[in-house]
Amino acid sequence: MYSLIRRLLFQFPTEPVHYFSMNSLHTVAALPGAPKLLARHFGARGDLSKTVFGLPFRNPVGLAAGFDKNARWLDELELIGFGSVEIGTVTPLPQDGNEQPRLFRLPADKALVNRMGFNNEGVKKVSERLARWRSGRPEPVPGRPRMIVGGNIGKNKVTPNEDAWKDYEICFRQLFDTVDYFVVNVSSPNTPGLRALQEKDALHKILDHLQTINRQQPHTRPLLLKIAPDLTQSQVDDVIDLAAECELDGLVAANTTISREGLKTPAATIEAIGAGGLSGAPLRQRATDLLRYIHTRSAGSIPVIASGGIFTGADAQEKFDAGASLVQVWTGFIYEGPHIVRNICKTLQPGMRQSQSN
Question: What domain range is 276 assigned to?
């Protein structure tokens, strides 16, 4: 059924149809009796809960940052089964992002290219929306974990790199009471100069400053770092060492890639699309190799949320076998549809007990 719906949706421009689809789900979910039907039809079955960096995830399949930038569709995403959603990337000031069109499909490769540019409504508006969402929720049922919400934070395009730490602090403080964990994003290829912040000294300044603020709070929040799949081995080694030095709670591996190697889509089409981060199936092996290296090099001491090319339960299991603690989807959600969480969890069910210690 979804293959037919996808064929229709793919006839329209990518970014507008994204909003149309999610707003349609929002409308459906508001109908009497619809929430129970959606949860019954799409929700994961069985007990797949696990605790990672001290948080109780109801299942290990999350939605990566960039899909619900402004925390607009949390109720709907929870109904269709996600164990976690990472909102953002959020910046201190609202920004429009890059010029449209900026999101492109590569159906032959089951991939997307985006150069969104951290378009979001700004941290004040997002934090207010999250606060209303949390205050309007019913009391949790004992033994039934709720969906976890992460906050992916970045810097505004106009902020020079030497002042980037200030932007991350603003977002961290503003979102602290409304998210369950934080992800520092210095790895998007769509903000000029941002990836330079992945260098060890610049990164240490940001992470150490955030951890100082974190430790001053009554209860700390898990702090993670999202990295690019295009880092050299020595840069990955620096990240692993830095994670230990700054006592990070984990890593997210990986963001989109600037590589265009091995694509089936005609070169002329790729050239016409231009710059942007590539996500989806072509990223799967590269992201898994990075994950495996981090897990081996750190002796499994750093929890990793794996992202990149996850469409099926087999794709997710590959990440867990390589050392992942959790997985996130994004492009896979677009291509596989709202059953993706349920289908992945169905495959993982027999082996989940072995990964409870991650």
Answer: 2-20+47-136+144-350
With a CB cutoff of 8 Å and minimum separation 6, the contacts of 335 are 6, 110, 280, 311
What are the tens digits of pLDDT across the range 111-160? 999 999 999 999 999 999 999 999 988 777 777 789 999 999 999 999 99
Domain for residue 357, yes or no? no
Q: Treating both helix axes as pointing N-terminal to C-terminal, what angle do 284-297 and 233-245 enclose, rounded to 10 degrees? A: 50
Give the CATH number of the domain where residue 335 resides. Answer: 3.20.20.70
- Is 234 annotated as catalytic? no
Is position 254 within any domain?
yes
Other beta carbons less than 10 A from residue 66's beta carbon:
24
Residue 14 contacts residue 21 (beta carbons within 8 Å): no
Residue 282 resides in a domain? yes
- Residues in the chain predicted with pLDDT less than 70, given as ranges, are 349-358
For 318-329, the three-class secondary structure string (H helix, E strand, C coil) is HHHHCCCCEEEE
Whether the model pTM is above 0.90: yes
Catalytic residue among 188, 279, 307, 355: 188
Instruction: Supply the pLDDT for residue 13.
Output: 97
